[in-house]
Fold this protein.
Amino acid sequence: MIELEGYGWRHAGRRAWAVRGLDLRIERGERVLLLGPSGAGKSTLLHALAGLLPQDSGEAEGTIRIAAGRAGTRPVPAVGIVFQDPQSQLVMSRAGDEVAFGLENLGRPPEQIWPRVDEVLDRVGFPYPRDRATDALSGGEQQRLVLAGALAPAPELLLLDEPTANLDPAGAALVRQALRDAVGADTTVVLVEHRIAEVLELVTRVVVLEPGGGVREDIPPHLLTGPLGAELAAAGVWVPGHPAAARRAAGPPGEVLLSTHDLRVRHLAYPDTTLYAGQALAVTGPNGSGKSTLALALGGLLAPASGEVRGPDGPPHRWRARTLAGRIGSVFQNPEQQFVTASVRDELALGGTPPGRIDELLTRLRLDHLAGANPFTLSGGEARRLSVATALAARPRLLILDEPTFGQDRRTWLELVDLLAGLRDDGHGIVTVTHDPDVVDTLADRVLRLEAAP
Amino acid sequence: MTGPVAVTARPTRSGAPLARRTPVAKIVALALFTTAALLTRDVAALGFALAVTFLAAPLFGITPWGLLRRGWPALLGAGTVVLSLALFAADRSGTVLFAAGPLVITTTVLLNALSLALRLLAIALPSVLVFSTTDPTDLADSLIQHARVSPRFAIGALAAFRLVGLLGDEWQMIAMARRARGIDAGRNPLRWLRLFASTAFGLLVGAIRRGTRLAVAMDARGFDAGLPRTVARPMPWQAADWLLVAAGAALAAAIQLIAHR
């Protein structure tokens, strides 16, 4: 079904090849998990398989062949693809129209479209009627809808590019359930995912890409343990059975940095809590429980509706921005929203950071070789490190992070947890909003669990 | 993060007799009607156009009062026109009605101001009627089926419109991110302007990146791949649609007849 011989692709304007020297054969109906550390070219390979690399956007070598084997099928698109972020994949404003969109594009007869839409929505377990507004769905529901849209034309090849990376555990479970139930036995699946423990049962084969080129391992899923597992874990791949070492606080918590009293923000009420220097607090809870909103209120970025956030000099949301940045550093879920300038160095210099401090941060967060790079061209892990560095620039005592480990590979994840643990042991207060149970297990000294709003 | 919040109230589908007419029929009737209003300065003709608009509002499922509420920017504009013409009009001929120092209000001033304000309302309020009762998806479908607009444009614009709804949230996030970095304008208007510009630039960069990702996702689903596209929501053009267009033409003619009486 898929044949790659010495395949390589280099994006226009880049010196390094994204993938190179790839020999791979995938038969019809196989379920392949594609692994490899960040930068091994997994996403590029999926784009190539989906025919989404236009010839003028780079340089190819070797051959890539996708056989349209099933009799009577058209050449496009025998391939369906699901990306990470549901918000930038949804085209239409009503759920049924979204699934019908792909069928219209392929010129399916109108009388066949709606029965097929209903069938696919049912198969992925979509719980609402067809006219449900796509904006009113949770992330997990949206991603199930995206999957339904990809499955509607009955593709022979289904490509999944970290389909659960942006979702909370409940949403990710919904999508995995839909994959289990909805994908037909003769559909070939190629999946890229960092968190593999949960998806191993869905695949029949694991292919590990070598950064720099070629296939490193090509094995059945159950062999992904033992020495090979340890080796892959060291190389940045999430392998089940290799938990990170816990990093508990070295000493007792220090002085109070912030406290909340009868706090309400927007329409949500929060339990009273106190943040201490030298302590890491994890804020957990399902989607919609207001974790991010709490982070913004603690960070002095949102005014409370009632009650208060009490700092040493009054409520943080009344402080001037300059004062705020010197006391509380906020790291947003999406690093790109925080970037303002055209280079990593300028980004750190913003707000009057002295040059010595900039160099110190660049070295500490291993960004020194990227000082001149545009922040928007950084990889996921690099962008995350830069967003943490910018929050640290004005030396705040308290650091508030929203889902810092989302979509990170194991190496970046370990680095981040190490960095945060180190900051805590230096006397910083750390608050991290997280869905990630491993963050709670390894880093948190205290957990604040929010319940879903009634 | 916070859930997406639409910055504008999205039009909804309504069962009112004119609201559920084919969008292209509504727009053609609207174009005829407002063009006739645009071409006249006659107060009686414009008054007639406005009266028709308010009388037709219930047929679109909107009460006259609801129309005033939705059309408040137009009302504000009309008020501003009257005020500024009263203060700054060059032509102050006609009978003096009111004089206080340099401020001289004459019949001509008042009539000119009234005519301009009415014209603004006679164009804006019918447009509010039509567009607040037209679902964007229906509009795109109708443009493709009845006006031969290319799906590439109509569906592309529709998808972009969906992203616009997310911009309000994005703006708020970027503004908060700036504050977290220690950047605020305080009371300095120059810095406020610079901050506004850089926030807008951030918004633009984000919108382009998201738009690019959406375009790739649409390509992957065979959009504009050169196959003949079918229509999942066929929208028949009915006799009532012809009637609506004819009514628009008749009213346009009536406006012009009153103006040239």
